[in-house]
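Could you help me review a protein record that somebody else here produced? Here is the record exactly as it was handed to me:
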Amino acid sequence: MEQANLLKMADVKAALGTRPWNSHKGMFGYVGILGGSLCYAGAAKLANLGAAALRAGCGVVTLGVPASVAPAVAPYLLESTLFPVPDEDGKMIFDPFALASFLSGKRAVAVGMGWGRSTEYQKILEYLLCNYSGALLLDADALNTLAEDGLQLLFRKQGPVILTPHPMEFSRLSGVPVDEIRERPVELAKSFAAEHGVVLLLKGSVTTVTDGITVYQTDRGCAGMATAGSGDVLSGVLAGMLGYLPPTALTVACGAFLAGLAGEIAERESNPFSMVASDTAAALPKAFSQVLNS
């Protein structure tokens, strides 16, 4: 049986480290979040995603959304900056010049949340994998696009790649039935990560994170997180932490731990029925404080 390390609060605290008094935002990374479409405009959700990234400790977040969606998102952004991406019918189109501008200076980029489906995304994803050398996190419809376009793209990547599927998305990527994934999550995740040279975060009541060599698990989270947008908040947290920490399995596992802990705090302050994903994002400062003060 494959062995996994159950992440503890002390592990997360050690990974976060401390910050000098003379810090400035450039020390903690510029990160990008690329997502959204007309059908999933999700102004509040995407703004929440940006907030989650900043709450997770990076210096600056740029939110890239289809240009036609940008006016709906802009009123919800305070600390984050906005990058309108050329679009058609409310979905991003492939524009290498716009993508190059968006990627410039970014230490980490999260892609795919609220994208929907489009053949243009295959071109965008190929460009990102083949031209971006920072940490690239693929979630939601970026994972679906990858599954449709073929995993061979991963072998052309120029930088570290993090995949964050739930069991159904992992089934599409791996071809393994969901029931089998739930029975053998550690073994299957580790094998996939090793074969494709990625860090894989397999979501679940126990989340498994592996680089194909080391495996971490975290059981932080709660029933209240079973709501739309929780995965988007997690992607925002991970992007934020990848702005200032190395793109390793440990960093990704720590992000999952903190997002789950924030969800637990939010559920205690609300209840499992009424809780929404933005409650988790709002509880991130308390989660970080609990870890840092432990």
Q: What stands out?
A: The chain has a mean pLDDT of 94. The longest strand covers residues 60-66. The chain has one domain: 5-292.
